[in-house]
Amino acid sequence: MIIKYYVARTMKFIFVGMTRFFVMMTLGRTDM
User: Fold this and answer.
1) Which has the closest alpha carbon to 21: 5, 6, 32?
2) How would DSSP label each residue in 1-32?
3) Contact assessment for residue 32 and residue 26, using Cβ atoms and an 8 Å cutoff
4) From the CA atom positions of the chain, what is the Rg in Å?
5) Residue 30: which residues within 8 A CB-CB, separation 6 or more?
6) pTM (2 decimals)?
7) Rounded distance, CA 32 to CA 19, Å?
8) pLDDT digits (tens, 9 = 90+) for 1-32
9) Distances in whole angstroms, Cα of residue 25 to Cα of each of 5, 9, 11, 16, 18
């Protein structure tokens, strides 16, 4: 289903964003 694919991609995008945000906080203030 197209909707299922869209939801899966959205969840993956959010997961990547959260991971990157967590890494930035762990490393400290990194303005890029």
Assistant:
1) 32
2) -HHHHHHHHHHHHHHHHHHHHHHHHHH-----
3) no
4) 13
5) 24
6) 0.52
7) 16
8) 789 999 999 999 999 999 999 988 888 775 55
9) 30, 24, 21, 14, 11
